Amino acid sequence: MSGRKKKKVTKAERLKQLQEEEERRQKEEEEARVKYEKEEMERLELERIEKEKWNQLESKDLERRNEELEELSLLERCFPEAEKLKQDTRLLSQWKHYIQCDGSPDPSIAPEINTFISLWKEETNETFEEVIAKSKLVLNLIEKLKLILLETPPYYLEDKNIIQYQGSVLEMQELLHLKFNIATEILLRQASTLADLDSGNMEKVIQDENVTLYVWANLKKNPRYKSVRFSETQTGFEIPRILATSDIALRLLHTHYDHVTPLRPISTSFQGHTTRIPQFVKDEVKSVEAAISKELPEESKQLENESNSVHEEEETKCEEQGDIEVQTSFVQEESDATKCELEMKLLSETVLSAQLLLIENATEKPTFFEDNEVDLCQFTTLGGVYHLDILELPPQYKPMKSWMIVEILKEGLQKYIYPPETTEDVETENAFPPIEVTLEVQENVIFFEDPMVARWDAEGKHWQTDGISNVSYKSEERLITFSLETFGPVTLIQDTHVNMPFQSWELRPLGVNKVLLTVTTVFTEVQIQIKEDLCMLASIKLSDKKHSSTLEGKWMTPISFIFALKETGLNIFPSGHSHFYVIINYKNPLVELKAYRQLALLSSAFAFGWSKWNAVCTSKKVIVKLSEHLTEEPIQNPNWTLLMFSGNRAQRLKINENSETFSEALKEETEFHSTLYHMVKDFASKEAMEKIRSSNCQFIDSVCYMLLSTRLLSYS
Fold first, then answer.
1. What backbone torsions phi and psi does residue 383 show, to the nearest 5 degrees?
2. How far is 376 from 378, CA to CA, in rounded Å?
């Protein structure tokens, strides 16, 4: 029993154990402290080395910055050079029109276009076919004026020119619609002679590339004939009994263009900003010209005085006179070169200011919209305008012996008011129900979502969505059906930003002065080829299936191309107000502009693409992926490098697209540079650099314009 007893620990032994534990703890703490101090020293040393290396790189970058920026400035002379070529092209087109002598007016010359309009007003009794034939020229003139307003740089447009061009456009639009109304009246006078043998009513369809007319005249007034369907089409109406028994005609004039929506005025702030630029240019150029003209006589006078003092013999005098002429000629050439250099510098600054305006965001969202009014900054009209009218049937032709007699009403074609303004004599409340309308959607227009229907409010001068019900859309048949309370112009609208923001993008070289820009959105993939000063739609994919378009294979100038693409519903071009309707990855406009200009410079030899890290970095920096690309065919699994650019510094990043976390750490054995051009110069091949230096100025300008118009760095 006593052996099993536990030995009692004495006080001395307990103190010894505590002392040993304390010593062990102190030893561990000391070891931990030494280890921490060692690691901290190593860390500080590493930071010191990194900081020293960083400072060396920054110092090296600072030393060569001026040299690199000067070289970039020389490369970016391509932008003013391209602008000068555009000016020459505009002047040449005017000259070509002048020597063509085809009888068509120059729409930019007020007397010519005014004479054309006046002469056409005097022409009477034109049939619908004749008006359609004439409309081709009128629509061409309207399009030319719109393109002049779009393509002419703002610093060359004066207020009086804008007023003149927009006034001519409006006058031709109104006159064209008036001519269609008069031609409709002439056609309806013959309704009885054109009546269908089966129904006894008149039905007429006239189709053209720009206009389609559907006319139905109610000659029999059969109350059971309520369904109007035009032959060989799905277009038609379901009319109430009161219209089926009335002396009326139904007209659907589908213009494949939109002459109803008001022209967008150029904002005052935009004009104010741009008109200061040319005055500055003119003042500087005038001062240089004055200095040159003053310098030349002084130089000549000084040279003449020197020659008069030294000539003694006739032979010597002749030699001195020859020297004077040579030196005077040299001064003249030098002065001309100085003037040309200054003009190019000023033009370069002007072009830069105009490019910056393309990517500036509006500061205020439009807030003047009434209830049900369509916000044209948020929605776009597509597929033209459907002019729906209920017309009073005019007096018909009557045979009189060998003559045809017709009463011509002085007031012309009259609209039938439906529903009538007063309904006191009508017993039932639902005597004037909405009219069901079925329309065919234009084939070359793409709707990514079911289109909405809007009607024109003639008093408020805007589109609105009230008074329309029971809208249904059959995408396969491209038919839209809805009920309309009152007739008038209607159109189909789509969200302008349905394809924004973009999911990804890529810019890839295709050869000499040729690239392919691919923009991928939620609904589509759009491929655009850019060659010299032209653009072309290469392909469209909808739901991973190729979609054919009338624009494919057609080369156009960038502005014409963007305008045409928007009209088909393929809008991938943000406006100044788009940031109010789309969640964007905001970037500083100046940084964004510099990036686009330098990407365009490198685009002939390098492929660029979207990077997920561009959304993570700050608004003062952009990140793109880059890969050298010297073949026309796409490279399988390209070796992408990430570049970060802040407007005045470019660097390669250590991370790649598959990294888990973002870091701005510099890639090993690389340096900073002031430009993207000098950054890629460090690792690019000689062939790539040669391609870049030999790129066409118009090609670089077109690529830059397309990048500025799509704003890929902010809207992806």
1. 80, 15
2. 5
For residue range 408-442, what is the model confidence (pLDDT) as tens digits? 777 778 899 888 876 655 555 577 899 999 999 99
Nearest one of 679, 629, 670 to 649, comparing CA atoms: 679
Widest pairwise Cα distance in the chain = 155
Predicted confidence (pLDDT) at residue 39 exceeds the cutoff of 70: yes
Cα distance between the two ends of the chain = 87
Looking at this protein, which amino acid is placed at residue 563? Answer: F
* pLDDT, tens digit (0-9, with 9 covering 90-100), for 79-128: 999 999 998 888 888 888 888 777 789 999 999 999 999 999 999 889 99
In the predicted model, what is the mean pLDDT of residues 189-199?
A: 86
Q: Say how far apart CA 204 and CA 214 lie, in whole Å.
A: 6
- In this structure, what DSSP letter does residue 615 have? G
Question: Would you list the DSSP string of 494-550?
Answer: EETTTT-S-SEEEEEEEETTEEEEEEE-SSEEEEEEEETTEEEEEEEEETTEEE--T
Cα(259)–Cα(177) distance, integer angstroms: 9
Give me the DSSP letters along 131-190: HHHHHHHHHHHHHHHHHHHHHS-GGG--HHHHHHHHHHHHHHHHHHHHHHHHHHHHHHHT
What's phi and psi for 260, nearest 5 deg?
A: -100, -50
The closest alpha carbon to 597, from 156, 75, 70, belongs to 75
- Write out the two tokens for 310: 């030294």
Beta carbons of 233 and 440 less than 8 angstroms apart? yes
Q: Count of H helices and E strands in the chain? A: 13, 23
Q: Which of 80, 87, 78 lies closest to 345, judged by CA? A: 80
CA R_g for the chain: 37
Dihedral class, residue 232 (left if φ above 0, else alpha if ψ from -120 to 50, else beta): left
Distance CA(376)–CA(362), nearest Å, equals 15
Region of 31 (left: φ > 0; alpha: ψ -120 to 50; beta: rest) is alpha
Cβ count near 53 (within 10 Å) = 11
The first and second tokens of residue 532, run together, are: 């010299």
Cβ burial of 442 (10 Å; 0-12, 13-18, 19+) is: middle
Structural contact between residues 43 and 653, judged by C-beta atoms closer than 8 angstroms: no
- How many CB atoms are located within 10 Å of the residue 235 CB? 19
Nearest to 236 by CA among 435, 389, 438: 438
Contact predicate 141/104, CB 8 Å: yes
Query: Tokens 């033209």 belong to which residue?
Result: 384
Is there a contact between 604 and 635 (Cβ–Cβ < 8 Å)?
Answer: no
Whether residue 580 contacts residue 365, with contact meaning beta carbons closer than 8 Å, is answered with yes
- Contact partners, residue 386, CB within 8 Å, separation at least 6: 252, 253, 254, 439, 489, 490, 491
Bond preceding residue 419 cis, omega within 30 of 0: yes
Distance, in Å, from the CA atom of 576 to the CA atom of 359, rounded to the nearest integer, reads: 7
Closest CA to 90 of 559, 596, 528, 554: 559
Beta bridge partners of 438: 236, 481
What is the spatial order of strands in the sheet that 452-457 belongs to?
202-207, 211-217, 248-255, 379-392, 489-495, 452-457, 462-464
When mean pLDDT is compared over 33-37, 41-45, 483-487, the highest value belongs to 483-487
What contacts 288, CB < 8 A, 6 or more positions away?
338, 339, 342
SS3 532: coil
